[in-house]
Amino acid sequence: MDAAQVLARYDREARQEMPPDGPGAVVERVGPVVRQDGGEHGWSAVLWSDLDEAGADAAIAEQVAYFGALGREFEWKHYSHDGPADLADRLRAAGLVPEPAETLMVAEAAALIGEVELPEGIRLRTETDRTGIELLARAHDRAFENDGSHLSRRLLDQLAAAPQTLAVVVALAGDEPVCGARLEMLPGTSFAGLWGGGTAPEWRGRGLYRALVAHRARLAVERGYRYLQVDASDQSRPILARLGFTPLSVTTPFIYQP
After folding, report:
1. What does the DSSP 8-state code read for residue 111?
2. Which of 60, 120, 151, 153 falls 20 to 30 Å from 40 in CA-CA distance?
3. Beta bridge partners of residue 125, listed in sequence order
């Protein structure tokens, strides 16, 4: 993989030209900034920017004013290769709060297809329906120890409006969800996104994360996507590197709360 070439393609397709990722969402370019207004339940964010030192502060202030007037939280999705070099400091100065950084990693989806090996007593539920989303939210609660209800609402809206953009898979021990993940497939792009994959503490280290990656890789290839993209945490990055994912940049969510 030519990392620089793939990163340029990612910036173009998944940031500058990204289609709305859910019902009611609107993506628009405002000068040097591309932003998504996700509506009441969706994700609102600055997706891409092309800023210099002279105009960066004004552009940041414009987005804070726009989303602030709506009373809406938003994320400025900052990448380490974005300019200017001190953009992260400027975002902090404007009142946006950074969350833990993650690594943008990409792999050829076809290279990840393999046998899905599951621990004894585990089965995969692969139906993308209301029950699957509710199980995914429960798995999210167990893995990350936070409330998955907002995620559930957003995915149910997405399922109703654009079911072809979403695939959900949940690992069950009996009837209990112990790992859950989703595949996000935006039309017109080469990149399908891997999200979730959190595993309940007592089931970690037993191959569930790898199994859900392989399952979603097969789905992505079947639906015509060339690349898989992950915003990898420190915990998942070593696993993904062993599977063949290449790190392209570091991304930090900067959050504004009105």
Report:
1. G
2. 60
3. 170
